[in-house]
Amino acid sequence: MMSGTPSKTKTACDQCRFRKLRCDGGFPCGRCSKLEFECSFNTKTSRNRRIEQLREQRSQLPPPSASFHEHEPEHEHDGGQSPMLVDDESDRQESTDLGSKLGDGVACSLPASDDCLSHVSPPLSQSIALQGSHPSLVTESRSVAAIPGSMSFDQHDPEVPPLRDAIASLHAGSPYDAPSHPSTDAVVTGSTLVPREFPVLEHGSFSPSSSRPAACRRCIAFDESEVLPWLNIFFDRLYSTLPIVNHLAVYQDVMNGRQDTDANFATMILSLCALALIQPVFKAEYSSMPTRTALATKMLRSALQARDFDFGENITLEAVVASFFMFAALYGLDRPKAAWLRLREAVEGGQLIGLHQPETYQGLSADEKSQRFRLFLILAVTERGYALQRNHYISFIGQHMEKMNDVYKAISANATRKISNILIHDSRNVTAMQGLLQLMRLFDSVDEDVIPCWNRSCSPPLTSCAKLTVDRAHKVYDAIANAMKFGSRQDGDDADMSSFFTTISPVSGSPTPELNDMQWADCFVLQQWLLIRLWVSCLTHDLLNEDSELTFIRPSFSVVIAENVLQQCQRLDASVLEVHGIGMVERIHDIALGVVMAIQHCRDTDGDPTTHRGHATLQRYFTLLQRLRNGEHSFTLALREAYESTGI
Asked: Can you tell me which residues the record assigns to a coiled coil (predicted)?
């Protein structure tokens, strides 16, 4: 200290003035002594010059080190940017004194880049947590470095309304009160559990929970109240045709917070909810379809962000189910290529865990066997149907009914359980199983060798195909026609899968139908669609003959099939067809398209009754397609354009 300098001064030292702190005026001041700073009064320089020197010294300090959480990335970006980096607690404490300009403890992932900006994240209660959130964001409320192109917590897609508005408008526009989880506030109407008040998601989307365990990796935190309405809709409307999750186990796991620690389970739940939002939509609910689509899209995005870079290395049953639900939701969103990719993902995952191998079912509990078997049936049926419709290949090949018959017998023997000496028969699962077995039987009736003939890929252009002959087509027709016939389930443990089939519609007055309305409609329309596809194959292979004794190769056969389908659809409630989503609409369109092809085939035949019957039938199909899903699909227009192209 310089001699003759007073012990106190009324002005603050440069260090305290720079930090805007109270200075005691000492030489050196108490704050500089405590922090071991060089007090500016020891060097007689101008105040402004000294401040510039301090700034230069600070700029020369190394940047605070940031720890890269390799296994816990903050966000994923569509543009492929690197994950955000977050300071370690120790680094954040060390940089406090230097952070008055940069913010509290913010470390940029690219410190040397001019494009790298910093910001302090908003309160989590105001966030829309569409990205996978890191546990530290909840437990320590750390700030996150913003990378250009990323979506922060207070941002959302400008083309998609916030989820809070989505849920609110969805509730306001839908006359259906989604059933809630069983509680004292729920009322029972018929067989449907309806809540007194529809739960609205607070602040829109899946908000990170402050109670999330720190060990959770890439999990999406959402409250059970955000998904229970859609879970209930799924089990109320879709479970009988998609029985691939355990009803009670799903509710228990969600209420216990399994989604906080199991990323595959969280992905499955969000994908299931997305499907429940967009597929089983009744006509009266279609005013809310834009909002449903927006919410389903956000759920699918969140579900995908829960998956890590090595997804598939250790595949689980939940991961396979999630991929299938993604396929179904994307198909309903009119994303056929993306849907096919997810279906391939689900099928390959099912093969990895051995769903198609009977030996993998040994040693499993009855519930595990049943769930795996139902998932296998769903994947095999869906893959084959999609392949027939879109000219794709098939992975689950072979006659599955024969190969998996022993597995089914073992599952059927445990259909009735004994709990505390009380026998419990789970009729809901039994009914769901019957629908799947009927679908599998229908698809197994199609000869795999003639599938290319169905899709016109059996031979090169300008050449004839010798695979599909009248005799072979006759065998396929008999197999499809006999796949649904009058019958009832045989009692006893020796009953196999082939004994579970029926064509009796529940609305026709049958005393003990094996299938409910939704299942019967699905199976019946599928059977008639397969017959139409067989007829089209005969048409493209020049096998049609009006004078033939075989009805299925007559030009009028497609009109007969279309009239039969139309008659049955008019007997069913519209909701029974609408619950199957756009897939049912597409099959009905394909059946009607067969009528157009018959009219065109008979256009040169004077006085052919097929033409007149076909015109009348098509007019009724236009009305039916316009009624389904409120007419908000492209199949009505496509059918009308095909009809007008005939020029008749």
From this structure: none
